Amino acid sequence: MGGLSSWRDGPSKRAIEDFVARVCGADGPQPVPVEERLAVFDNDGTLWCEKPMPIQLDFILRRLVAMVEAEPELRERQPWKAAHERDHGWLSAVMAEHYAGDDTKVKILAGGVLAAHGGISVQDFEALSDDFLRSAQHPTLGRGYLECAYAPMVELLAFLAANGFSNYIASGGGRDFMRPITQEVYGIPRERVIGSSTALEYTSDDRGGTVIRKAEADYLDDGPEKPVRIWSRTGRRPLLGAGNSNGDIPMLDFSRHHDKPFLRLLVLHDDEEREFAYTSGAEQALDRAASEGWTVVSVKDDWASVF
Amino acid sequence: MGGLSSWRDGPSKRAIEDFVARVCGADGPQPVPVEERLAVFDNDGTLWCEKPMPIQLDFILRRLVAMVEAEPELRERQPWKAAHERDHGWLSAVMAEHYAGDDTKVKILAGGVLAAHGGISVQDFEALSDDFLRSAQHPTLGRGYLECAYAPMVELLAFLAANGFSNYIASGGGRDFMRPITQEVYGIPRERVIGSSTALEYTSDDRGGTVIRKAEADYLDDGPEKPVRIWSRTGRRPLLGAGNSNGDIPMLDFSRHHDKPFLRLLVLHDDEEREFAYTSGAEQALDRAASEGWTVVSVKDDWASVF
């Protein structure tokens, strides 16, 4: 059932097909029970494009710009200043310094990120996210953000679902940011979206109450937090884990069994022409893929089409 | 589809049947889409018996007793002392003082609860819970704990599922304590169990790593935390909320819509002969049921059989 027509023949496609065949009982004594067929996917850089900046960062920067328009004195404070001035140098420095071990600017940016959508209800936040994702254009690819999902990965999700898998997103991105569009784009319902979240608070009223986003972090679903959140949400260890960066290493490590088929996929961005070419932030993951035998998915070689 | 044969004819059964008929489009222009048919249930005192003590408390006390056997000096410290001496007076005082606003003993008990299963993997914890729930007997009802689920509520869950609902447990009890038995007892898969949890930590190794329970609380899924956790897990507002105590008020409040059918159920324990009769811890919930028109389910009047 299902097919992988946007995947080129090669070791990655074969690894996926062999894995699914084994899960379905092709050469074992019996198939893995359907309820145990769990697959987890990172989102940014795995299911959709994350360059030149994560899609959610664009969403947040636009909100910071709007905040400056409403409250001009914010213009003098970071990160509003950088957003208002489209100062990509400052924003790039955040990530560069982070990788070098200095999180001073990360904390300043995080303060703005949390303030940007603090104090609004989860429904209102979703409406903003939904509107943005359906209307904004990718800055360089000449397509809307919802068309920035990778066609081969969408096809893989459908192939897995057709073979009894439950697909979950386990992203470092915001859970409530992704939820309004995951069913339509990925066929993944909102209850299967795991991601980062701000702290939430319930406030009662006589119309059913509201869940409000507080301007403080709850948790960042990245690195060793990913297996914890996957367990908390599903109560299971995945059979398939797919990611593209160092923050996905624990999730892929966790997708391992001693008595069942399992598969780890690491997307390698090596196609400057059709997408982007980069390994920054994925160095240890690539090392680990080599030492652990993870399947490295080359955008250039393995995907017949990217979008 | 499905039926409610262990419910006596009366206003509660009628309210349930009317609600489900409206959700399925019996007298509206169109049915509520299946993906929006979310129902949430408290567990202790709503789906299964919570007297003379919550089932999980029995599990924990037995573990504390075992800890004293392995480490006799714990005998002098609370709550190990009370567990070892079967001092129900001390344990009753915990709840009595808690309701009176004094949480000194609650904190002492919590320290023991967290230590009881700290430092073990989530899988090992589940194996302990599973074994306990399948072997231990209720202290007074003359039945195993898995037979302490309320037959009419199990029937209600099946009736809802047969009508397209996704049923979730939203319990103050431990999520990982319930998970091994919810499919079998309630037809609720483990990914639909929301409950309290200790803090968890991922530790890596070369065999897939492990999620470990830390001896510290993460959150207590009770009161205003219930709507927050329901939203976090499902991204939806329930159509049906069912509970039995003050801690369920925000969840039942949250199960309200202005444009869809909704139903709030409050189980009233008023049957000393077949189960237990008590309203302690449910006083405000009963007041709210009266003022908000929640459906009060009388164990004595509404249930033809209890177990």
Describe the structure.
Two copies of one chain form a homodimer. Chain A has 307 residues and is α/β, with parallel strands linked by helices. Chain A is built from twelve helices and eight strands. In chain A, strands 1, 2, 3, 4, 5, 6, 7 and 8 form an eight-stranded mixed sheet that branches. In chain A, helix 4 crosses helix 5 and helix 6 crosses helix 8. The model of chain A has no long low-confidence stretch (mean pLDDT 94). Chains A and B meet through helix 8, strand 3, helix 9 and helix 10 of A and helix 8, strand 3, helix 9 and helix 10 of B.
Brief summary of the model shown:
The first copy, chain A, is α/β, with parallel strands linked by helices and 307 residues long. Helix content of chain A is 41%, strand content 17%. In chain A, β2 (166-174), α8 and β3 (193-203) form a beta-alpha-beta unit.
SSE topology:
Two copies of one chain form a homodimer.
Chain A (H helix, E strand, L loop, with lengths): L10 H13 L14 E4 L13 H16 L9 H5 L3 H12 L4 H13 L5 H14 L15 H12 L3 E9 H12 L6 E11 L6 E10 L5 H10 L5 E4 L5 H6 L8 E8 L6 E2 L4 H10 L2 E4 H4 L5
Parallel strand pairs in A: 1-2, 1-5, 2-3, 5-6, 6-8
Antiparallel strand pairs in A: 3-4, 6-7
Helix pairs in contact in A: 4-5, 6-8
